[in-house]
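ugh ok fine here u go
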Amino acid sequence: MNITQSFYDNLAAQYDKLFLDWQDAVREQADILDRIFRNSGFDRTARVLDCACGIGTQAIGLAMLGYDVTASDISEGELAEARERARKNGAEIRFERADFRALSETFAEQFDIVIAMDNALPHMLTHGELETAARSIVGQLRQGGMFVASIRDYDSLLQNRPPYSPPYIHKTDKGRRVCFQTWDWENDLYKLVQYIIDDEEALQVSRFECEYRAVRREELTKLLLSNGCGEAVWMFPEESGFYQPIIAARKG
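structure:
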């Protein structure tokens, strides 16, 4: 098991603590994606693959809007959490375990839309791995289909390589939760440690480690364009309403 799988398997049961209200985030993010899809000429009959679904934050919301959603992830722990959350929300989703570097090994069909949100692609620690992922993802799109992904604003972060992220402090009716990350850099690679301090009823401190590579927007754009996409457009938070920059690329 690699460090990414371990990170998400261990984090799965607490992932929702990163949000003030996970259910609200599900609805809000589905609305954002729905608007992007519709502005690109798709409607809710589109077949969507969430190839880095995590605990289902985007997949569940889109399914609840009526999209035909398939969801996959490399983490069994997150898939188990996502299945249960989909059941509780009455969302019909096909779940599969799959590595987005090799989607064709799991999926014979192609999709209208593939998404990979919440900084999933920068788990690819080399340019070669990222290109393999881009080729795999575009390969699961039909002609004219769209790939939508979000990553951190690494173009900005690489100017100073900050040692930590600003904390999220969530006040609840039971107390508060504090979530923050530390980042240890080595060139464009960094080790991330996610801390969750839950001080709602009994104090609980959790710690999870992972690795990322800071992917510049130009690198990802060029990879998508050289692996089957005819156009790729970036949208920033002030335009999209999403908390990270989003790329939308069309195949063909």
